[in-house]
Amino acid sequence: MKPSPIRLTKQKLSPKAAAAKKVRDIAAAKTTARKRKKAQNQRIGQRSDSDLHHDGTKVKRISIKNNRGFYSRGTKKE
């Protein structure tokens, strides 16, 4: 199967900038703190009606509506 020629990126970056961002994102995902949060998320289990937020040592479930809408304040000028 061929890969799709359509790129579904939200950021319009040059190829050089996209490559640099990929390196930064992978480095951030492999930090010790991030690995610990991912493992904790897997132990807790994700649900389709909420997202998990790590607040210090606690984990809170936030509704998808509140999370994607930045706690009802929106993320864009609407």
Provide an overview of this structure.
The chain has 78 residues and is an alpha+beta fold. 42% of the residues lie in helices and 15% in strands. A two-stranded antiparallel sheet has the order 1-2. The N and C termini lie far apart (40 Å).
In short:
The chain is built from 3 helices and 2 strands, in the order ααββα. The chain is an alpha+beta fold and 78 residues long. The radius of gyration is 16 Å and the shape is extended.
Helix content: 40-55%
Number of strands: 2
Distance between the termini: 40 Å
Radius of gyration: 16 Å
Beta strand %: 15-25%
Spell out the helices and strands N to C: HHEEH
Shape: extended
Supply the helix-strand structural class.
Answer: alpha+beta
Q: What's the main sheet like?
A: 2 strands, antiparallel
Comma- or semicolon-separated keywords:
single chain; 78 residues; alpha+beta; two-stranded antiparallel sheet; 3 helices; 42% helix; extended
What's the arrangement of secondary structure elements?
Layout: H1 15-29, H2 32-44, E1 50-55, E2 58-63, H3 64-68
Antiparallel strand pairs: 1-2
